[in-house]
Amino acid sequence: MTEAETSAAQAHDSEPRDDGSWKPEVTTAPLYLQVAHHLEARIASGEFGIGSLLPTENDLAVSLGVSRQTVRQAIGLLRSRGRLSARKGVGTRVEAGADLGSKRFIAHSRSELFEIASETELVFSSKQEISAQGKLAVELGCRPGRRFLHMTGVRYPPTRQRAFSWNEVYVDARLAPAVRNLSVAKSAIFHLIEEYTGEKIQEIQQDIRPVAMTGHVAAALGCADGDLALQVTRRYYGSGRRLIEYAFQILPADRFTYTTTLRAGT
User: Fold this and answer.
1) Which of 19, 163, 203, 220 has its CA 20 to 30 A from that of 153?
2) More confident site: 138 or 21
3) Are 44 and 98 in contact (CB under 8 A)?
């Protein structure tokens, strides 16, 4: 399966089991991401200790009630993070405990955007319809006067112990019904829009730049004016490169890690 797993396949993978063990959540997150989060939590708890071997793919598939392909995708994701390694004839070895508080929140793919959204909560504090004028229209790359639903809020880990980013989202006003009544987002906003319109986002442009936090943003994140952060801006385009959503998040420098992996031959 892939991120684009069919509903029928997901329904099959999500069938209840008799043993009362882990079950997929009711969420738009792909099933393999849910399995990866589950395995990562078991690694973090010490159930699967560093240096130990995971159960086989077949055994995990049976115990979790999912397909072997879903387990394989989840393991592949954790291998790419350095959590696991695999050797032919040996098995899948736990290499590092999960540091759930300092994951990287700069996505490299649609699936990683799903992952970020599904393992966090974006709590909105304000929503209002606005008309893009002046600098905002230039930033959005739209004609002056185009209307958007502007939403602001703070993103938290599931425990909500400490906010790790300030978020602002601009959604084409004609698509506002897809998110207007949303108070807490536990899935990607762009995916909710896709579900509402039936149209898949064709392109996501991501820009990253350093900023200094000030005013209400610094206060909302418990930071001081002038503290350093990164601003990650994303523009989501539909067919004809029409802007569907514009969003940015501001991440304090001490609350995330940006990790890439370079492999031989790639």
Assistant:
1) 203
2) 138
3) yes
* More confident site: 212 or 89: 212
Alpha-carbon span 107 to 116, nearest angstrom: 8
Most confidently predicted of 94-108, 202-216, 243-257: 202-216
DSSP track, 49-74? -TTPBPPPHHHHHHHHTS-HHHHHHH
Bridge-based pairing of strands 91-94 and 147-156 is: unpaired
**Statement: residue 198 has pLDDT above 60:** yes
Using alpha carbons, select from 170, 169, 251, 246 the residue that is nearest to residue 210: 251
49 Cβ contact partners less than 8 Å away, ≥ 6 residues apart: 94
* Residue 206 to residue 234: CA distance in whole angstroms: 4
Greatest alpha-carbon span in the chain? 63
106 within 8 A of 259, measured Cβ to Cβ = no
Q: Is the pLDDT of residue 117 over 90?
A: no
Task: Give the whole-angstrom CA distance, residue 228 versus residue 210.
Answer: 7
Angle between helix axes 31-44 and 57-64 (nearest 10 degrees) is: 100
Stated pTM of the model: 0.64
- Helix or strand run (H / E) with residue 36: helix 31-44
Look up residue 191 and give its two tokens.
């995916």
